[in-house]
Amino acid sequence: xxxxxxxxxxxxxxxxxxxxxxxxxxxxxxxxxxxxxxxxxxxxxxxxxxxxxxxxxxxxxxxxxxxxxxxxxxxxxxxxxxxxxxxxxxxxxxxxxxxxxxxx
Amino acid sequence: xxxxxxxxxxxxxxxxxxxxxxxxxxxxxxxxxxxxxxxxxxxxxxxxxxxxxxxxxxxxxxxxxxxxxxxxxxxxxxxxxxxxxxxxxxxxxxxxxxxxxxxxxxxxxxxxxxxxxxxxxxxxxxxxxxxxxxxxxxxxxxxxxxxxxxxxxxxxxxxxxxxxxxxxxxxxxxxxxxxxxxxxx
Lengths: 104, 185
Description:
The complex is a heterodimer of chains A (104) and B (185).
Chain A: H1 14-28, H2 35-60, H3 79-88, H4 92-103
Chain B: H1 3-10, H2 17-40, H3 43-60, H4 70-92, H5 97-110, H6 118-128, H7 132-143, H8 148-155, H9 159-184
Helix pairs in contact in B: 1-2, 2-3, 2-4, 3-4, 4-8, 5-6, 6-9, 7-9
């Protein structure tokens, strides 16, 4: 700092003692463990290993055939519709066959 | 800054980190004190901020990436600590921007270690009335005589922006001083 322009002052003896005090005070302060430097490579290796395991399981897993969607899923007749069907469309023989099939 | 190469050499793996830190304190302790003092004004506050600065430097030394110059990094840490200190004070006094200026003016008026004359006191008051960024730039350029390139690296702005900021600040300070001169006379 330009001494001619500097209007501020300090207590007597402050500046000569400053270096020693700052160094002593800071070095005595606890330092955080450098976890990041250790943790980052470990996390990287773990992620790579997990990815390899997932890919290997995906390759070696038996192919599963997804079940075909049932045509009946979208067919939800009301009670009235069923009664109307039975009374108009179905004969007794078809009806008894349906009842037998439903029982199996 | 020539000393920085030696300090950085000591900071390499297998080097003497404590010795490097002591050299850093020797090289930058007083310089950073004056830098911080002009921001926070009070001696005791400057001392507290400086201690926090060097604790932060000591803790961050192992992770110093050499992307920035040591000089730039040290000033940046000190500046941030000082601005954070003012931010906390601002919160303590209900958050009004103008009140921190009043508080700093009070510190200036009651500072037992202020050794300037009335003109210098008026100059300091005019600087305190500047917006924070302009105040920083004005202090670093006018009092510390720092190069624009160095200030720009510390504050993370372009040299062009910095020159405009400094000229705006200098103009305001000049106008305030003329005004106060008129009031006094």
